Amino acid sequence: MAKTGKVIGWLITLLVLAALAGFLYFKFWWVFSDGTKTGELNSLTYTGYFFKTYEGEMILTGYGSKNSAGTVQSKTFKFSVKDKEVAQKLTEMTGLRVTVHYKEYKGALPWRGYERAIVDHVDEDASYNKVPDESPLFL
Question: Which of 47, 76, 88, 99 could form a disulfide with 38 if both were Cys (CB 3.0 to 4.6 A apart)?
Fold first, then answer.
């Protein structure tokens, strides 16, 4: 009888450890969403006490709202960046309209960044950021 109790104790321990491992995987390593966002890059900072990470913020603009038509509304998108090259590219694009590709997780890890959204690629919206032609209006 004592041997059966030990086997059941080990099985329960293994089940609890498997459940914990599954929870941690889905919380911190499973990609919840994968997508792109376009907006004006507002800031990018290198911050942290023990784990230095790049933290950024974009302003996403949209037109119209449910309450009043014809209004402009904006929303912020906060994100972290793991790759130093992507962070350098973003630093050079501060203030410009950019499109970022990101992966979102259900939880943040200190060495990955403060935010759940992790940007892994960035492109400049060249058509929007183009400097207007300074040719005269009338010839």
Answer: 99
